[in-house]
Amino acid sequence: MARDYPPYIWHNGKIKPWAEATTHVMAHAVHYGSSIFEGIRSYATPKGQAIFRLTDHLKRLYHSAKIYDLPMPYAQDDLARACREVIVANKLPRAYLRPVAFRGLGGFGLSAECPTDVAVAAWEMGPYLGAGVLEQGIDAGVSSWQRFAPNTIPAGAKAGGNYLSGQLIAREARRLGFGEGIALASTGLLSEGAGENLFLVFDGELHTTPVSAALLNGITRNTLMTLAREVGITVVERDIPREYLYLCDELFMCGTAAEITPIRSVDGKPVGAGKPGPVTAKMQKLFFGLFDGSTPDKYGWLEYV
Ligand SMILES: Cc1ncc(COP(=O)(O)O)c(C=O)c1O
Question: By the 8 A CB rule, do 258 and 282 touch?
Fold first, then answer.
């Protein structure tokens, strides 16, 4: 399938043409999933283009590297600079940024020492789950695949291999005609979406699953919890059984890629009124308000290009 790739990418220390950022088929990461990555968005704001919570995303990247003992050949500041450089090189007015670090070509065994390759790609990306979904919402289904059990694969790391689980969940959902899949943890309790965290609304309160439920501790999740509490919305982190997906008043997914995507049905059962509700709309307004200036950036989350 022909794709419209951006002209430039940052790779191992410099900006180069997209086509030149190659790696060997025997690189460790190709075989064992030994990569770590981030997904970050930049937005056009009244004060210029801003990368949303760049420092927090890069901090999580280095945490993922720590969990998997991946030596990072660049400092966090170098990668922050790379993120800005690749946006500028590609003349992007807004972007989805993908920093990735992986074990490259070295030894062949699982514990082989390999050099770490690092790249940062940037491209323009619309709503992750499809056009119009932020307004209309999606139909979701609970996956037959559970997330990994505690102390097997660390859900707190954003690592390539972890996303084999996400692929099973997302591909099964598409095959069954759903917009996205929702996973249960090995406990049978709710975890998160294939690549998004979950919020359920009960009587005006926001309920979300805890990090112990095999999920990635999302930066969007943290953003929404902070913004909600500021406007007096109660936020509760708790274990949630599956059936509450059918009983809540509203439900939405959130993440850097999915932003705030309402869910209008689960497993064919309507959520609340079967369309995006007022609390979801309020959270969208607060979140996107960060980028049009109507929500004040109190925490320095907008890091200008
Ligand atoms: C599995 C998973 N959960 C949750 C999220 C949401 O995280 P964030 O809001 O930091 O993008 C993502 C996206 O990165 C993800 O891949």
Answer: no
- Is 158 designated active site? yes
What is the pLDDT confidence band of residue 2, given thresholds at 50, 70 and 90? low
| Residue from 216, 283, 290 whose mutation best tests the ligand 1 pocket (most atoms within 8 A of CB) | 216
List the end-to-end C-alpha distance of the chain, in Å, as a whole number: 32
- What is the rounded distance in angstroms from the CA atom of residue 196 to the CA atom of residue 39? 12
Q: Which residues of 97-130 are buried (b: 16+ CB within 10 A; e: fewer)?
A: bbbbbbbbbeeeeeeeebebbbbbbbbeeeebbe
Q: Ligand 1 mean position to 254 CA, how many Å?
A: 8
Going from the Cα of 291 to the center of ligand 1, the distance in angstroms, rounded, reads 20
Q: How far apart are CA 46 and CA 177, in angstroms?
A: 39
Structural domain count, the chain? 2
Does residue 39 line the site of ligand 1, with CB under 6 A?
Answer: yes
* Shortest-distance Cα residue to atom 2 of ligand 1: 195
CB of 218 sitting under 6 A from ligand 1: yes
Residue 5 and residue 26: Cα distance in Å, rounded? 24
Question: What's the whole-model pTM score?
Answer: 0.97
* Digit-coded pLDDT (tens) for 199-244: 999 999 999 999 999 999 999 999 999 999 999 999 999 999 999 9
Question: Ligand 1 in contact with 219 (CB < 6 A)?
Answer: yes
Could you say which DSSP state residue 176 is in?
T
30 with 156, same domain: the answer is no
Catalytic hit among 16, 59, 158, 275: 158
Residue 1 has what pLDDT? 47
Q: Name the residue with the closest Cα to ligand 1, atom 16.
A: 195
The domain of 78 spans 8-123
Same domain, 163 and 32: no
